[in-house]
C-alpha cells in the first residue's frame, strides 16, 4: 500500500471512529453525510450533525484531492512538480452547553513531486476555564508526542499558541493544544516513524476531548453564560475568516464552501464593547488567552 | 476654512442628523457615544445603538485621523508624501424586523501631499426583496448624482455591484446602491463642485433609507423569516471579514477594533447548506444577488 493510501484510510477510519463516539455521547444527534467530487480531481465525505443534545453543530469531514497545483498555491506548497495530492480529516464541534469547550482538530498528509509531509493538531476553545480540562487535553497529546520525540510537544504546543491567535484582539483563540505542519522525514525520523506518530496523534483526539465533554455536558448554566458563549463564538468566526490559512486555502482552491464553513458556529453574537468584569470567571479566561500558559 | 475642516464638519453634521433621525423613528433606542483618540494622531466619535425597537444594532461613527502614512498603506494611498489626513462618517444599521433592510453608508475625504479625494456611497441589504424599495434607494442617489454629472450614477452603481460581492458565494451582498473612491478634481469637475456633490450625496442618505425603514418596520414576520435573516446576516459577516477593504484598512492601521466591528450584526446563524426553496421569496432574493439588476 502506498503512503497515500495508508494516509487516506487512516483519516477515513478516524472519521468513522470519531463520528461514532460523538453520536454515542450526544444521544440524539446523528451525522448527515454528503459525498462530493472536486472538478480538478478527488472529492470528500462531509458529515454534519445539527441540533444534537450535546452538540449544537459539528462537522467531521474528510477529503482526498489531487491534480495540478492551483496557481494560488504555487508558492505555498513545498516541493516541486506540477501535481499535488492531499488527504485529511478536519473537525469542529460547537457544544450547546457553555461549560463544554469547542474543539477543532485536523490531520493531513500532502505530497508534491518527491516531497511529502504531515500536518495537523487539535486545539481547545473553552468558554469557562477549567484548568484540569486544559491539562488533560494537553497531557493526552503530549504523551503521544513524547513517545516519539520529546522535542515534539514543546515545539508543536508553541506553534499552536502562535498560530491560533486573534492578533487583532491580542488574544489566543483558546487554550491551545498542538499544531504542526510540513513534518518531513529527516535523519532522526523515518517516514514510517512519522506515519506511526501522526496516526497515533489522530487517535488521541477521542481520549483527549471526549472525557472533557462528558464531565461538563450536564452542568447547568444561565442566560448570561449562554450570551457570553455566543459573544466568544464571534471570536471564533473572526479567527476563521480573518486569519485561518485552512479557510484561505479552501477559498483559493475553489473548495466546497459548505464544507469549509461547517467550522462556523451555529449561533453567534457581536455586541459593542463587551468587557469581562474584573475578577469574574470570564476575566479569568481572558487572562489565559492574552498570555498562554504551560499546561503539561 | 480649509477643505479638511469643511469635510470634517460635513461628516460630523451628517452624524448628528442621521443619529437624530434614527432615534426619532426607533422611538426607544438611544445612541451611546464614545470618544477615542488615535495614538498616531486624531481620533473619533463612535455612536452605537443597541436593542432599539426598530434597530437591533446600529453604529454611526466619525473619525478624523492624520499623521505619518502607516507602512501597510504606503502603496495603497494615492499621492506622495509622508503624511496623510482622513475624515469620514461610516454607518451600518441592523434592523430587528426582517422586512426592513440592513444598510451601510460611508462618506470620506482623504489627503496625502497635494493629492486629495472623496469616497463613499450607500448600499442596501434586504432579507425580503421589495422592488419598490430597491428602486427608491437607487433613484434617490441617482438624482443627486445626475444633478452633478449624468456619468456618475452608472459608474458608481456598477462599482458598488462589483465591490460589495461575496465572490466565494457568487452573490452580491445586497441590491447595491452607489460606491465611489478616489474621486478627484479634473477638467470637468472643480474641487468645489465635487465637494458640493459629495456633501449632497451624504445628505441623501436619510431620504434614501428612512422611508423604507418606516414603511416596513411594522410588518409582521414569523420565526422562519427571522431565521432566514440570521442566516443572511452570516453573509454580511463573511463579506466584512473576508473581502471588505475598510475592515482590512482598519486592522492594518491598528484602528479601534470596537469601532471597526460595530458593523457586525448582533445575532447571526450559520447552518449547514441552507438552500432557498425554488419559487419562494427567498429564492427570488437570491436571483437578484447572483445577477444584479438595474433599479433606476
Question: Your description of this structure?
Answer:
The structure is a homodimer of 296-residue chains. With 296 residues, chain A is of the alpha+beta class. Chain A has a single domain (72-84, 95-290), classed as Coproporphyrinogen III oxidase, aerobic (oxygen-dependent coproporphyrinogen oxidase, 3-Layer(aba) Sandwich), CATH 3.40.1500.10. Chain A is 41% helix and 27% strand. Chain A has nine helices and ten strands. Chain A has helices at 3-26, 131-146, 152-163, 191-203, 205-216, 223-243, 245-252, 257-260, 281-290, and strands spanning 32-37, 42-50, 55-68, 83-95, 102-112, 115-125, 165-166, 171-172, 176-183, 267-269. In chain A, the strands form two sheets. A seven-stranded antiparallel beta sheet of chain A has the order 1-2-3-4-5-6-9. Chain A has a two-stranded antiparallel sheet with strand order 7-8. The mean pLDDT of chain A is 95. Chain A binds chain B through residues 32, 34, 48, 50, 57, 59, 168-169, 230, 234, 237-238, 241-242, 251, 257-258, 261-262, 264-273, and chain B through 32, 34, 48, 50, 57, 59, 168-169, 230, 234, 237-238, 241-242, 251, 257-258, 261-262, 264-273. β10 (267-269) of chain A pairs antiparallel with β10 of chain B.
The level-1 CATH class of chain A: Alpha Beta
Mean pLDDT of chain A: 95
Please state the overall shape of chain A, judged from the principal axes of the Cα atoms: globular
How many distinct helices of chain A?
9
Q: Look at the helices and sheets of chain A and give the structural class.
A: alpha+beta
Q: What is the string of helix and strand elements of chain A?
A: HEEEEEEHHEEEHHHHHEH
Classify the oligomer: homodimer
Q: Residue share in helices of chain A?
A: 40-55%
- Give the C-alpha Rg of chain A: 19 Å
Termini separation of chain A: 37 Å
Largest sheet strand order of chain A: 1-2-3-4-5-6-9
Amino acid at each position: 500500500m502506498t503512503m497515500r493510501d495508508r494516509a487516506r484510510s487512516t483519516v477515513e477510519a478516524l472519521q468513522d471512529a470519531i463520528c461514532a463516539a460523538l453520536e454515542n455521547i450526544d444521544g440524539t444527534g446523528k451525522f448527515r453525510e454528503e459525498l462530493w467530487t472536486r472538478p480538478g480531481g478527488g472529492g470528500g465525505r462531509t458529515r454534519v450533525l445539527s441540533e444534537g443534545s450535546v452538540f449544537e453543530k459539528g462537522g467531521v469531514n474528510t477529503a482526498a484531492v489531487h491534480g495540478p497545483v492551483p496557481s494560488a498555491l504555487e508558492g505555498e506548497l513545498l516541493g516541486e512538480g506540477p501535481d499535488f495530492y492531499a488527504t485529511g480529516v478536519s473537525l469542529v464541534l460547537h457544544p450547546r452547553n457553555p461549560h463544554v469547550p469547542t474543539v477543532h482538530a485536523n490531520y493531513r498528509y500532502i505530497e508534491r513531486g518527491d516531497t511529502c509531509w504531515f500536518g495537523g493538531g487539535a486545539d481547545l476553545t473553552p468558554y469557562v476555564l477549567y484548568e484540569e480540562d486544559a491539562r488533560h487535553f494537553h497531557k493526552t497529546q503530549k504523551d503521544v508526542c513524547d513517545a516519539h520525540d520529546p522535542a515534539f510537544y514543546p515545539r508543536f504546543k508553541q506553534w499552536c499558541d502562535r498560530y491560533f491567535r486573534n492578533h487583532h484582539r491580542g488574544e489566543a483563540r483558546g487554550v491551545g493544544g498542538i499544531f504542526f505542519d510540513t513534518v518531513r522525514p529527516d535523519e532522526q525520523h523515518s517516514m514510517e516513524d512519522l506515519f506511526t506518530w501522526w496516526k497515533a496523534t489522530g487517535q488521541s483526539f477521542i481520549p483527549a476531548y471526549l472525557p472533557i465533554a462528558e464531565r461538563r455536558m450536564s452542568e447547568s448554566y444561565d442566560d448570561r453564560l449562554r450570551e457570553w458563549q455566543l459573544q466568544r463564538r464571534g471570536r471564533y468566526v473572526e479567527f476563521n475568516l480573518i486569519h485561518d490559512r485552512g479557510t484561505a486555502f479552501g477559498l483559493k482552491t475553489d473548495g466546497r464552501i459548505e464544507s469549509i464553513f461547517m467550522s462556523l458556529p451555529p449561533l453567534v453574537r457581536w455586541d459593542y464593547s463587551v468587557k469581562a468584569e474584573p475578577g469574574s470567571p470570564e476575566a479569568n479566561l481572558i487572562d489565559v488567552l492574552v498570555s498562554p500558559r504551560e499546561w503539561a
